[in-house]
Structures are given as structure tokens and as C-alpha cells.
UniProtKB/TrEMBL annotation:
Keyword Transferase: no
Superkingdom in the source lineage: Bacteria
NCBIfam families given in the database record: PRK10933.1, trehalose_treC
Gene Ontology MF, one: alpha,alpha-phosphotrehalase activity
This protein's record includes keyword Hydrolase: yes
Gene3D superfamilies associated with the record: Glycosidases (3.20.20.80), Golgi alpha-mannosidase II (2.60.40.1180), Oligo-1,6-glucosidase, Domain 2 (3.90.400.10)
Species for this entry: Aequitasia blattaphilus
Cross-referenced SMART domains: Aamy
High-level lineage: Bacteria, Bacillati, Bacillota, Clostridia, Lachnospirales
Domain Glycosyl hydrolase family 13 catalytic: 11-410
EC number of the protein: 3.2.1.93
Protein name from the UniProt record: Alpha,alpha-phosphotrehalase
Keyword annotations from UniProtKB, A to Z: Glycosidase, Hydrolase
Record-linked InterPro entries: GH, GH13_cat_dom, Glyco_hydro_b, O16G_dom_2, Trehalose_TreC
Length: 547
């Protein structure tokens, strides 16, 4: 196992990062231009979302050719150059492999449609009865998971959009094809992989209706998932690389198996339970305030559970599918600076590998789009329709999208105060967010007290302190609204306090200034009396005790 515990990953949503050729769409050359910025931030890996040939119905998560760079994002040469330039700066590239499904434009699916039975076996085609789909499962993007092909008189499975057909991993040929894809990119010098919804690849032997849910219990962490992952990793020789699986609706038990080195599957897992604490009745499209007690419970269970089982977490608040954390768990107006820093602290000092999503390091907020025309995301557009059909008014549906849409995290990076924020020479493919503050990278880099500088400090701390990268974690009971945890390694102990509310809250843990060194704080000054018994709104304190 390689030494990855002190590494930090930066996620790039390529379409919205930096446009180099003035077409309003971010691209590979744009990423290369910004490598020095990333080096300054201090990250070790960049994960770039799919840049392969694609009709882009789901912005590249619908791959048409695994071996080609989409011309919209550049050329293979651009990619090779990016890898080389990254290596010079000590930044490794992780690519995103979408192996649960392909675009329906993929050659394999096209052959299947043309009647080639060999290729129909690459996908999951089934007959329905009485004109009904084979099961009542619900797609992640709304509607049925089955699409009917009249001339074949069969339905095919798509857990996501109908242009994303699920691959049949039961078929050894499919598994061999996908191994070749991994080896190809490995050969290009890619040093890590993120596997998209990889825990959904193993489908049940019998397809049946779900009478109590949307079907996910039949294919999530499915029957052969561990077997498939072991085979993929072994046969492609990527055991020593940094790999992360995106695990949808997963369990701690399965994530231990996915990421415990002894199992020889992956390095770490993304899980999403902490990002559902503001879903009313588990429903993404019903808004409520985050349940902080639940949030604490989830982190406690996952952190302690994974530690006990020898698993490893990928830590994140934001990605291209999620609203911005400062808008969601912080306060992006009155406490924008403080809450951005508090959320960063909480996450980066946990046990696991932190992921920074582009713009998070400068405190970018939700997009807060006003009209439906501004939205580009297939899920947002589908659910807007569904909400209207279910009887919501347009205003109600738009209000929900403003909180929940994936486009909140997809507004273009804001590099400087020039027109189009230095992202592009022209109007970008998606609108900029409607900001209260003129948030830009230029304004923050090299500026003491900025969110960017704070992230630099967090990354530095992880590299300096083994208690953070490798230490044991324990949680201690604090006033509701505050989460407190400890990290310990050898003689070093670090205490972390985070106030997740906009209230002053008193601490149960009493501490004296003489006994600790204040490693980090997000308010400018501690009170002078040498003792601190409370935390201000969104305040965080990181204390070091050395014995
Ligand atoms: O996402 C998987 C996934 O299930 C979600 O994060 C999903 O977007 C969310 O639950 C919807 O509410 C991955 C990719 O990250 C995402 O961008 C793709 O759309 C999806 O897989 C399909 O490839
Ligand atoms: Ca471009």
C-alpha cells in the first residue's frame, strides 16, 4: 500500500474550471494553465471529471468512447501535456472512469440496437409483460429505469438517464473490455482512478419489483460487487495506485471491505449519508434545515466504524453533484468567511483523505439561479417537470432547485474581476452564480486571512502532523450544535471544536490556554482571558496538546 494518508485531492469539473480557447467551455489546456495555482494551494492529486468522447447529456458521465478525448475538451496531446506538466509540479492525475453504464451512442450499444446479439449481452435487455417494464424501479434522474426499444421488443436498464445504458458485468467480455480501458489510461501516466457509482455494477440474478422502495436495495453493493472489484484491481495491476470508489447508498460494512488494504479492492470510498441530513423523509426534493444531531451521528458512526474495520474514508462536503457546503451547512452571507473555514477545518482534520472541490477553497456559494432556463443539468430539468406534474407551482419548484440543484456546484470558477471572471473570453455554457460578495481566486491568493490561505494551512498541517494523517480518532460529547473530536498519534494530541450554528454556544470541555497551543482558529482573536468556555457562531478551534 502506498503512502497516501497525507495526500489531498482537488476535484476539477472540467466544463466549469477554465476555458483556454474562448468557446465558453472549460478544457484540458485550461487545467494546465492553472497548475501553478493548484501547486500553490498544495494539493497532491487532481481528479478531473470525464473528458472522454461523449454526447454530454450528463456532461461526460455518458461515455461514447473510452479511448478518446472529446474535442470540446482538447486532444490526447493536451492530456499528455497536462500529465507531464503536473508531474513537474508534483501533482498527479486521477481520471474518472464510468463503468456502470455507457452512452447509448457508444459503439457497443449501437451494435446492440442494430440487432447484434453479442452486443445486446453487453447491456441488460429484458422483456416486459403486458407492455409494462420488467420492474418498477425508479431512475436516479426520475422516471422508470427501463426504456423500451420497439424494434427489439425489449427494454434496457438505465439506472440514470435513458441515454446511459447499464453495462452487464455478468458478461466476462464486458469485464475484459473495461480492464483494457484502465490499462490504457494507466499507460498514459494516469496515477489514480475515481470509479463512478462503482457499487451499482453488480445486478441481482432475478429482477423483481420493489414493493417498499425504488429498487436500489437490489443493486446497491450487489451480490458480486466485491468479486468484480478484486478482479478488476488485480488484473489491471492498479493495487498500488490511489483509487476511490463512489459508493451510492452504501453501508459501513461494505465500505470496510472496499477499502481495507487486506481486501485488495480500493484505497477509499465516497459515501453520501452525511449529505442527506437535510432531505425531508429521505427525499432530495423536500427541503429542510440540516439535522445537526443526525450529522454528528453519521460522522461518528462512519469515522469510528471505518477505523475499527481498517477502512479509509474519502472526505468531502462538495462535488459536482452537490450544492455548495457554505450555502448548505454554513451561512453564505453574515458568516461567509467564518463558516467556510469552519467547514473546511471539520472535514480536513477527520480520519481520511480530504477532497477539495473547485471553488470551495475560495468559498464559492450556490448559484441561486432565478429561472428554469438557466439550469443545464439533466436531473434538475427532469425533476422540475416532475415537481410541476406533481402539483407544485413554478415558484415552489424553482425554490427547491435553488437549494438542491447539482448546477449550484457547476457555475464557472471565478478567477479574477475581469469580464466573465477570467473563466473565459465569452459567455460561459452555464451562468455564473448570483453572488453577494465578489468572490475570486485572485483576491484571495497570498492574502492573509483569506479562505484560500486557510486551506493552504490545513493542507500543510496534514503533512506536518501525523496525528492528522494517521492518528486515531475519538469523538467527545459536546453541546448540541458543536462537534468535537480528538486525533492522537504517539505523543501528539489534537482537539477540534466546530460550532455548526449561528449562535454562541458554551463548551462542555473546559480548557486553559497554558495547557494547549492554538493551532488554528477562524476568528481573528481569542478572548484575552486565557480561558475559553464558549464558541462564537461557526467558530472553530484546533488545539494541540503535547505530552
Ligand atoms: O453520481 C452518482 C449519483 O448517484 C449521484 O451523486 C447523483 O447525481 C445524485 O444522487 C442525484 O441526486 C455519479 C456522477 O457523479 C454524476 O455526475 C453522474 O450523473 C452519475 O454518477 C451518473 O454517471
Ligand atoms: Ca474551451
Amino acid at each position: 500500500m502506498n503512502n497516501f494518508q497525507d495526500k489531498v485531492v482537488y476535484q476539477i469539473y472540467i466544463k466549469s474550471f477554465k476555458d483556454s480557447n474562448g468557446d465558453g467551455i472549460g478544457d484540458l489546456k485550461g487545467v494546465t494553465e492553472k497548475l501553478d495555482y493548484l501547486k500553490e494551494l498544495g494539493v497532491d492529486y487532481i481528479w478531473i471529471t470525464p473528458f472522454y468522447a461523449s454526447p454530454l447529456n450528463d456532461n461526460g458521465y455518458d461515455i461514447m468512447d473510452y479511448y478518446q478525448v472529446d474535442p470540446l475538451f482538447g486532444t490526447m496531446e493536451d492530456l499528455e501535456n497536462l500529465i507531464a506538466q503536473g508531474k513537474k509540479r508534483g501533482i498527479s492525475l486521477m481520471t474518472d472512469l464510468v463503468f456502470n453504464h455507457t452512452s447509448t451512442k457508444h459503439e457497443w450499444f449501437q451494435k446492440a440496437l442494430a440487432g447484434d446479439e453479442e452486443y445486446q449481452k453487453y447491456y441488460i435487455f429484458k422483456e416486459g409483460e403486458f407492455g409494462e417494464p420488467p420492474t418498477n424501479w425508479v431512475s436516479k434522474f426520475g422516471g422508470s429505469t427501463w426504456e423500451y426499444v420497439p424494434h427489439l421488443k425489449k427494454w434496457y436498464l438505465h439506472l440514470f438517464d435513458k441515454t446511459q445504458a447499464d453495462l452487464n458485468w455478468e458478461n466476462p467480455k464486458v469485464r475484459e473490455e473495461l480492464k483494457e480501458v484502465v490499462k490504457f489510461w494507466r499507460g498514459k501516466g494516469v496515477e489514480g482512478f475515481r470509479f463512478d457509482v462503482i457499487n451499482l455494477i453488480s445486478k441481482p440474478e432475478n429482477f423483481q419489483n420493489d414493493t417498499i422502495g425504488d429498487g436500489r436495495r437490489f443493486y446497491t453493493d450487489g451480490p458480486k460487487i466485491h468479486e468484480y472489484l478484486k478482479e478488476l484491481v488485480k488484473d489491471t495491476g492498479i493495487r498500488e495506485l490511489m483509487t476511490v470508489g463512489e459508493m451510492s447508498s452504501t453501508s459501513i460494512e461494505d465500505c470496510i471491505r472496499y477499502s481495507n488494504p487486506k481486501e485488495e479492492e480500493l484505497t477509499m470510498c465516497f459515501s453520501f449519508h452525511h449529505l442527506k441530513v437535510d432531505y425531508k423523509n429521505q427525499d432530495k426534493w423536500e427541503i429542510m434545515e440540516p439535522d445537526l444531531i443526525e450529522l454528528q451521528k453519521i460522522f461518528r458512526n462512519w469515522q469510528l466504524g471505518m477505523q475499527k474495520g481498517g477502512g479509509w474514508n474519502a472526505l468531502f462536503w462538495c462535488n459536482h453533484d452537490q450544492p455548495r457546503s457554505v450555502s448548505r451547512f454554513g451561512d453564505d452571507k453574515a458568516y461567509w468567511l467564518e463558516s467556510s473555514k469552519m467547514l473546511a477545518t471539520f472535514l480536513h482534520l477527520l480520519r481520511g483523505t480530504p477532497y477539495i472541490y473547485q471553488g470551495e477553497e475560495i468559498g464559492m456559494t450556490n448559484g441561486y439561479f432565478i429561472s428554469i432556463e438557466e439550469y443545464k443539468d439533466v436531473e434538475s430539468i427532469n425533476y422540475y417537470q416532475i415537481m410541476i406534474e406533481e402539483g407544485k407551482t413554478k415558484e415552489e419548484a424553482l425554490k427547491i432547485l435553488r437549494e438542491r440543484s447539482r448546477d449550484n456546484g457547476r457555475t464557472p470558477m471565478q478567477w479574477n474581476q475581469e469580464k466573465f471572471y477570467g473563466f473565459s473570453q465569452v459567455k460561459p455554457w452555464i451562468p455564473f452564480g448570483k453572488y453577494e460578495y465578489p468572490i475570486t481566486a485572485e483576491e484571495q491568493v497570498g492574502k492573509e486571512g483569506s479562505i484560500f490561505s486557510y486551506y493552504q494551512e490545513l493542507i500543510r498541517l496534514r503533512k506536518e502532523r501525523s496525528a492528522i494523517s494517521r492518528g486515531e480518532i475519538t469523538f467527545f460529547d459536546e453541546t448540541p450544535g458543536i462537534i468535537g473530536y480528538k486525533r492522537r498519534n504517539n505523543q501528539e494530541e489534537i482537539l477540534v471544536f466546530c460550532n455548526f450554528t449561528n449562535q454562541d454556544l458554551s463548551l462542555k470541555t473546559q480548557w486553559k490556554k497554558d495547557d494547549f497551543f492554538v493551532l488554528l482558529q477562524n476568528y481573528v482573536k481569542l478572548e484575552e482571558n486565557g480561558k475559553r468556555n464558549s464558541l462564537r457562531p461557526y467558530e472553530t478551534l484546533v488545539l494541540l496538546a503535547e505530552s
